[in-house]
Amino acid sequence: MFSSSTSRNDPRRFTGPDGAYSYHDILTGSTPGPTPQPPKSSMNIRPLFLKTGLLSNAQGSAYVEQGQTKLLCSVFGPREIPRRSDFSLKGVLSVEFRSAPFAHPRHRISSAFEAQPTEKELSLVLEGALQAAVCLHLYPKSQIDVYVRVLEDDGSVLAAAITAAGLALANASIQMFDLVLGASLCRKNDLILVDPTLNEELGASEGCDLDSEGHASLLTIGYQPSLDQLVAYQHEGIITVDQIDQDVELLMKKCKGFLPNVQCCLLESLKIQTKSHRQHE
Amino acid sequence: MGSSEMRFVLPGMRICAQEDHYQSGCGTYVLHGYVYASLAGVLQIQPVMKGPISENPSQTSTQDLVSVEVHSPGEQTVIPAVGDVVTAKVMSVNPRFAKLSILCVRESVLVQPFRGLVRKEDVRATEKDRVEMYKSFRPGDVILARVLSLGEASSGYLLTTAENELGVVIARSETAGVKMVPVSWVEMQCPKTYNKEFRKIAKVIPENLADMAVDVKVLNT
């Protein structure tokens, strides 16, 4: 309704703390904006921060920071399936993947009510990954809800979401065959960028059309480390068969690389939980 | 096995080979001959209850059968399973069945209630055709029931109270709203008005005797 200039001068509006600037300035690139990240080595996953159990009203929750990508996952249930749906002896997973309106610096602000097509697509991929991981046969006639909320999108959201959902499900003590880890990779001819940032991803998607000189592609996998199984596979772009093999191999290795971090995070929260549980008794 | 230190496991961790005396318990699953954890929690190795096994002296080798279990700290995520005793609240009663809302499964409280149903023929074990639903349950009663089956999609779990230990546990009188006291296995009396109301009463076993009752039941079957 208001243009940015009027809203900034409106005395009735909360202007925010000193040093804050309007997000419109970031969009146009006129003011400082986020400081440019130092160029990262192309074969490493960005620094990872994991935490479980931060939402008290959810059965289980996880917060994942992968570089600047930040997202929150919460798990509710198992609860009764609503009346209208069909009888199923297996449990049902309902996965909702949504971006916060402020998550993406370039996209138009997403509607708070209606899911965008990309969000729906990512929900489906995530649901497929979790269906393979959760012991759904142990939850007949019930439903497990998984909500992923992206707080900041700086590339590799799906990979981070898969890791977060796996952590949140384990935190909710839902029975699973294995943990699930996500990793993604962006390839431009022979240049491989593991865990690409948003800029790198966008660069790749520009090179996706057939006419462009080099072929570029974007690959995300979901991986179960101890069973050595792939549970999700999403690929955009053009790639040769040999390269797919190489890339999947590489991503699985990367997943194994940060598995100890995920395990440490879960162990820490387990220790805290058992301690507080004992104190209650 | 008697180590006081707790051993934590995470989903997908291989615990041990599935051998003759290791049994996969709750929180674990078996794949390619190995027992894996499916929960994040504390590993527990417990001897399997020696009920029917000890009666058969020829099976001495299976006596030290142990079950490998994983227990997550805090509340367990449970859902009602066939054979479980559940605590439920009566929501509505009609001549054919009573609709319930399941609140607890065994000792654990559910986060969200599940729907349940007791049909007229499942109220008691004897004189099934003479059961009158209004003389068995009233809305608001808290009852103990056993899960018969998962039921249909629309109706929720199918429950039964056809055991002496199952039936109404807590009921309030119609006029005074006071918690009533059972006077026989079909009647409860209000301590204020001395009115008697009909119910299918559960014979509640004191908690310290409950374990013994289970043992007796195992031996009898």
TrEMBL record, chain A:
Q: Which domain of life is it from?
A: Eukaryota
Alphabetical list of SUPFAM superfamilies matching this protein: Ribonuclease PH domain 2-like (SSF55666), Ribosomal protein S5 domain 2-like (SSF54211)
Q: In this protein, which residues make up the domain named Exoribonuclease phosphorolytic?
A: 45-174
What CDD domains does UniProt report for this protein, alphabetically?
RNase_PH_MTR3 (cd11371)
Report whether Lipid biosynthesis shows up as a keyword of the record. no
One Pfam family assigned to this protein is RNase_PH
Q: What is this protein called?
A: Exoribonuclease phosphorolytic domain-containing protein
Task: Give the species this sequence originates from.
Answer: Tigriopus californicus (Marine copepod)
From TrEMBL, chain B:
The molecule here is called S1 motif domain-containing protein
BP GO terms, sorted? RNA processing
Q: Where is the S1 motif domain?
A: 83-162
Q: Which PROSITE patterns match?
A: S1 (PS50126)
Task: Please give the Gene Ontology molecular function terms for this protein.
Answer: RNA binding
Q: Which ranges does the record mark as transmembrane?
A: none
Q: Which SUPFAM superfamilies does the UniProt entry name for this protein?
A: Nucleic acid-binding proteins, Ribosomal L27 protein-like
Pfam entry (one)? EXOSC1
Where is this protein primarily located?
nucleus
CDD domains from the UniProt entry: S1_CSL4
A GO CC annotation recorded here is:
cytoplasm
Q: Where, per UniProt, does this protein localize?
A: Nucleus, Nucleolus
Alphabetized, the UniProt keywords read:
Cytoplasm, Exosome
Concerning InterPro entries, the annotation shows: Csl4, EXOSC1_C, Exosome_cplx_N_dom, NA-bd_OB-fold, S1_domain
